[in-house]
Amino acid sequence: MGKMMILTFKDSEEALLRRLIDSLGALEYQQVELPMEPLLKIGTLSLHPLESRIEQGGTSYTLGRQQFQILYLLARNPGRTFQKSQIYSMVWEGAEPIQVNETIRYHISELRKTLLELTGKACIETVWGVGYRFVE
Known about the structure:
single chain, alpha+beta, Arc Repressor Mutant, subunit A, two-stranded antiparallel ribbon, globular, Winged helix-turn-helix transcriptional regulator, WH-like_DNA-bd_sf, DNA-binding, Sig_transdc_resp-reg_C-effctor, OmpR/PhoB-type_DNA-bd
């Protein structure tokens, strides 16, 4: 069985991606783009990625970029558990890892407060010793 590697690149890094693909030579690869949808609905909760905004029942909150991206990542994959290091690398894209556990714990805590106020439930569950997952 083959191995899978997932890489993310910004549009401005297209040349870097091309060089990487060229260096792989004869290796088989598949390029898949996963753009953010204009709107993600989970039950009555709506996530608006282009505005970093969440909404339910006419009430909306605008989140910071990192908090919104964490929520969007978890909400697009309900029930899937993500490790803190996975969340950090996906949201902070290539940034030097600094206090990963504390950073993710802080943002999850703030997201839970906002979601609890907006929906009446925290929506993000801790999977002890593993990470976090979104629950509807």
